[in-house]
Structure formats: structure tokens, C-alpha cells
């Protein structure tokens, strides 16, 4: 099961946080309470997500030779998402937000996405596809933030938002682990990279369409 990720702007207005059920789970609240007993800051948790993403990327790149690294990549992806959940909860529910918190919630996410998706492309034998997917993923965030700059509520819709990309990559790690014992081709990873690219581009389109629709509604009350 994938750990749902928090909004990419956890220190921003509550209305701009990604609506996720995991934030209300007892597991997440217990972890948040535990972290609040320490001096760990939301910004440090955000940076930790990049470290886990880098570990996941390294595992993916080496899994072709050592398939047992696919579960390692899966664990790293989930830990990256857990950091994305907890940084927002510590910042908002725990009252530890900082003036630069929004930057720490945006920039590390883009780095983490790029590391994992680019690694996915190279692991699939198509480096260009990883770079294209990473660019498309970054564009989904750009469209979302641009909508916010127009004083609209930030739009986290899919079909290939961050949590969807990471859930798909998590599933791919499981399937690729099984595939490694059946054939030498990496069809699962290749198909996953294509789905992320196509889905991210479609997400850019759906979010842009929603922005245009809200603008027109505002112009014609």
C-alpha cells in the first residue's frame, strides 16, 4: 500500500493543502506526535525526502543487475512519501512552520521527482524517456502553482499527480521484481515510464483547463 503524500505547499494556506485521508490516520498522528517531541523541523523532513529519493533512484539503477534492490527502491519511495506527509503535519498541526517553509516543500519535491523518474527511464533502458517524464512532472507543479498565482485554489487533480506517479512507481517495483526472474527485458519499467509521461502531460492539460474555466466563470458571474 502506498503512503499518501502531503501537499507540496504544506506551510501555505490550509485551503492549498492536498486533501488526503492519511493525514487523519492514527499512524500519521502518532508519528507526528513523536517528531514533535524532538527538535526536528519540517524543513529537515523535506530535505530527508530527497535523500530517500536518491536512495530509491540508486536502487532502481542497480536493480537490473541485482533484482533484490527493487524492494529497496520501493521502500525508499514510500519513505519519500512519508516525509512528504509528515513535513506538512509537523509544520501545520505541530505549529512549526517557517517563513521559508513553502520553498522547502516545493523545491525538494521537484528534485525528488526528477531523481526517481530519470532513474526509472535509465533503468528501463530509455534515459530520454526518464528526462521527458521528469520535465512533464515538473510542469504539472508549475501549472498548479501558476493557478495559485492567479489567486485560485491550487489544483491537485490528476490523473498523474505526485501521489499517482509514486504509487505507479511503487507498483512497478513490485512487478519488475517478479519480471526479473522470468525474463531479461525490463518491459514493466519501460511501460511505467511511458505512462508517467503521458499521464503527466494529461494532468497539465486538465489543470490548465480548470484554470481557464475558473477565469471565465469569474469574468462572467
- Count of alpha/pi helices: 7
Summarize the helix and strand pattern as letters.
HHHHHHH
Give a count of the beta strands, DSSP E runs of length 2 or more.
0
Q: Helix/strand-derived class?
A: mainly alpha
**Helicity level:** 55-70%
Q: How much of the sequence is in beta strands?
A: under 5%
Overall outline: globular
- How far is the first residue's CA from the last residue's CA? 43 Å
Mean pLDDT level: 89
| Low-confidence regions | 1-15
Largest sheet: none
Radius of gyration: 18 Å
In short, what is this structure?
The chain is mostly helical. It has helices spanning 26-36, 42-62, 69-92, 101-123, 127-149, 162-179, 187-219.
